[in-house]
Amino acid sequence: MSLSAYVNGIGVLGPGLTDWVATSAVLTGAAPYVPAATNLPAPYLLPPAERRRTGRVVKLAIAVALEAATRAEENPAELASIFSSSGGDGHNCHEICATLAGAERAISPTRFANSVHNAASGYWSIATSAMAPSNVLCAFDASFCAGLLEAMTQTSVERRAILLVTYDTEYPAPLNAKRAIPDGFGISLVLAPERSSRSLAQLSVALTERAAEPMSDPQLEVLRRSIPSARGLPLLSALARRRPQETILDYFEDTRVSVTVDPCV
Amino acid sequence: MTTPLLLSRFTATSCIGNGLAATLESLERQHSGLQACRFETVELETFIGEVAGVDAVSLPADLRRYDCRNNRLAELGLQQDGFLAAVQGAAQRFGAQRVGVFVGTSTAGILQTELAYRRRDPESGALPDDFDYGATHNSYSVADYVRRRTGLTGPAAAVSSACASSAKVFASAQRMIAAGLIDAAVVGGVDSLCLTTLYGFHSLQLTSASPCRPFDRNRDGISIGEAAAFALLERLPDSTDADAILLLGVGESSDAHHMSAPHPEGLGARRAMLAALSAAGLDAAEIDYVNLHGTATPSNDRAESLAVSAVFAANLPCSSTKGATGHTLGAAGALEAVISALALQHQLLPGGVGTDELDPNLAVHYLRANRRQAARRVLSNSFGFGGANCSLIFGSAG
């Protein structure tokens, strides 16, 4: 059993990876990978009042989502979306838990509203006026493939374009000793059920018990292993190389996802 | 139009009862499980729907690292109504990789982190060694627990769209079954009491100091509850019992309006209900009862009444069961799905508990007393922070 869809747009942001064009050059070997702190742009799409309230996780998600939607030439307001993240906003969570452990317990209403796992989805819908359905997932380290499978099924069953956004940000101390995510990393794909002039490649996915494939570049392999969303890097590599290729992505310890990439050009 | 799915087994555990029989009995006598808050060290003037006996639940030895209130509540829920055995049967029939797990939660086991923060090392600030973030706090921990407890190896995720979470699990499962990636799915919702939600909703002035009063003229906020509710979804067999419960349609939308307030005219809610009707291939007139989101905040009930009255006839019976169960947040969608299934099977439209004086400005036919009435199709609403909306339609097979 395999499911297929077309990739019409890609967004990436991570340590030393500033967008899809730059990332594509690194993944094809045309440019060296130079690690650097993830630089998150301010979410200018949001009204100022909302913009001030957003944390790093929301900025990251909006940045990659916007890149993919723009490259796919899609109106974000019309796109249904899937947001999948291995955790929420660790900084916000730390502040709430620290306050609740104190004497006053007076947590900030804005912090509480931002603590929901669907904060990025909510701010994205406000920023883009998107009233289409948005589903928000978490599968801990398996969150990239959880989002990919949800997006692939939704686009093929509902026959509509889907914006997939997977994203993770670092946790502050003391949580980072329990959940060591070094920096922010996000991937976004616009998937569509039919081939169009904007289609970059066809993806076919299936469950498999075969082992996940590592990245050949040691530093990118460190990235793949240290941030859950970066488990999608082998798929981005295949898309960047523009050659037919099957790659196995890490999902659960008992089940992985096979993705076959067939370029459209 | 989507293909109906069978709820081959379902169960619910909340403050009105552990399992279907106790839940039905409470609904029949319009019993509320809400009590003045004595939870943990919380000092708030509010009422809560606490499930009795959660602390006494023990997890299987090989899953001890998952031990926290939320997973104990999940375990308690899974043990009711032969649910675990039904899932094992599905795994045997279809194969463990052909059965998905989709569990809605808003806070999972964050209580574990709240407690760990009280035990930080006074010098280094480090969290205690026994604290396990991934197995207890992380949103996925409860879906992971259910997946391991049932031995399933198929696709799995926590769905976390605040208070719409465990309605949306039905959509994820239905699509994955339709796509042929799986043959069946365990769907559900588990959310447990914690300080983040009790103090958080209080900070937004959204909790009531008295038991919540949905659709009441004097409603002034929610009562937070906790619950674990599950259903086993699969394709329709060639023949089903007349009282079998089917998932007929799911509708979803986003408000695109505000993080913690509904669209004032209920536009997103209206779109979700219309999408559910369209998915089910039904006209509004074919719905017999609406289980409202009905949180008892002034803004939710106003927006929801506008949305419901824009879609349905003015005499359509509807009610909120949150006066009995409290608002179980990420578990509410699944809990109210099970209550909707009980309404269909037992021809009982549950009257809303806790409402003294209906708000005359809310133009819906709100039931305060139970009504014995044959119902073939019911719609259940769940809306959440971030503007997440989901409506589910269930029907009888016969």
Topology readout:
The complex is a heterodimer of chains A (265) and B (398).
Chain A: E1 3-13, H1 20-27, H2 48-53, H3 56-71, E2 80-84, H4 90-100, H5 109-114, H6 119-128, E3 134-138, H7 143-158, E4 162-168, E5 185-192, E6 201-208, H8 218-226, H9 233-241, E7 245-249, E8 256-263
Parallel strand pairs in A: 2-3, 2-4
Antiparallel strand pairs in A: 1-5, 1-6, 4-5, 6-8, 7-8
Chain B: E1 5-14, E2 17-18, H1 20-28, E3 35-36, E4 47-49, H2 69-78, H3 83-94, E5 99-104, H4 110-117, H5 133-137, H6 141-150, E6 156-159, H7 165-178, E7 184-191, H8 195-203, E8 224-225, E9 227-235, E10 245-254, H9 267-280, E11 289-291, H10 298-311, E12 317-319, H11 322-325, H12 332-346, E13 348-349, E14 365-366, E15 371-372, E16 377-384, E17 388-396
Parallel strand pairs in B: 4-8, 5-6, 5-7, 11-12, 11-16, 12-14
Antiparallel strand pairs in B: 1-2, 1-9, 1-10, 3-4, 7-9, 10-17, 13-15, 16-17
What does this structure look like?
The complex is a heterodimer of chains A (265) and B (398). With 265 residues, chain A is of the alpha+beta class. Chain A has 9 helices and 8 strands. An 8-stranded mixed beta sheet of chain A has the order 3-2-4-5-1-6-8-7, with helices on both faces. In chain A, helix 1 (20-27) crosses helix 9 (233-241) and helix 3 (56-71) packs across helix 6 (119-128). Chain A starts with a strand and ends with a strand. Chain B is an alpha/beta fold and 398 residues long. Chain B is built from 12 helices and 17 strands. In chain B, strands 1, 2, 5, 6, 7, 9, 10, 11, 12, 14, 16 and 17 form a 12-stranded mixed beta sheet that branches. A 3-stranded mixed beta sheet of chain B has the order 3-4-8, with no helix packed on it. At the A-B interface, helix 4, helix 5, helix 6, strand 3 and helix 7 of A face helix 4, helix 6, strand 6, helix 7 and helix 8 of B.
Relevant terms:
heterodimer, A: 265 residues, alpha+beta, Peroxisomal Thiolase, Chain A, domain 1, eight-stranded mixed sheet, 9 helices, 8 strands, globular, B: 398 residues, alpha/beta, twelve-stranded mixed sheet, three-stranded mixed sheet, 12 helices, 17 strands, 31% helix
